[in-house]
């Protein structure tokens, strides 16, 4: 038996139209007195609940063009304007100022000049030779970009992650391989020690890493544990006043060249991610060795290898 279909012009349709008119009126009231620019709301839901104004967006143009925004605007969690309804958009908001600041602008300019003069012209040869240009470490150190996130107490620049991202961006323009090794050194190794190391460890390792005298690496990946880091097999067993490491790591950026390594290992097999600890290992420690440098398809100037641990004692 077929059931009769409800008419689209029934009470439900009328209530929906009333709700739409009420929502439009609430927006007009909310925006009253603010400079606005016309736009069209379309079909995708868009909500900015944490901002002081629910319609704040960076789609601003002082020339007042017609702007078509493929969004629905949620005035509050209970009111949505349906598609193809015309609304209004505030003209400007100081909270959406994307200027990076004079210090970071100067850093970008400095790196752009350096990369153009010292790196870009060498990029093809770096890739061909499968060899990181070792002179870059000292040059980066002299520029102060190896310890961007570290305080001046240890020779760092005392800036932050935004500055580090800008440095990565500009170095990458010249050579992605060099930028990869730079990032592994300055962020994965230097920043890890800076954030989590003891005062004694910071004093011992950071100054030489930041000056470029020493090279840093971080070892997480293993032959059977890449992105699934919880599956790592490298063991760190407590023996007396020290830990003893046994196992291997692979695909370690800066592995062939580093002096200082941050090594992740399992200290408790029963605790999954909470059973993993980080250790600092030095290049010449007994039982620690490195495999041959990989001949990769890409990022060839970023030196990579396996690491092997045979009863390596970490005090």
Topology:
Elements (H helix, E strand, L loop, with lengths): L10 H20 L5 E6 L3 E2 L20 E3 L2 E5 L2 E2 L4 E6 L11 H18 L3 H7 L5 H9 L17 H14 L1 H21 L2 H13 L4 E4 L15 E5 L2 E12 L6 E7 L9 E7 L5 E3 L13 E11 L1
Parallel strand pairs: 1-3, 2-4, 7-10
Antiparallel strand pairs: 1-6, 4-5, 8-9, 9-13, 10-11, 12-13
Shape field: globular
Q: Main sheet? A: 4 strands, antiparallel
Indicate the CATH topology of the largest domain.
Answer: Butyryl-Coa Dehydrogenase, subunit A, domain 1
Helix share, percent: 25-40%
- The number of helical segments is 7
Backbone CA Rg: 28 Å
Distance between the termini: 82 Å
The total domain count is: 3
CATH class of the largest domain: Mainly Alpha
Domain Acyl-CoA oxidase/dehydrogenase middle: 217-312
GO biological process, one term: L-leucine catabolic process
Organism: Pseudomonas savastanoi pv. glycinea
Cofactor: FAD
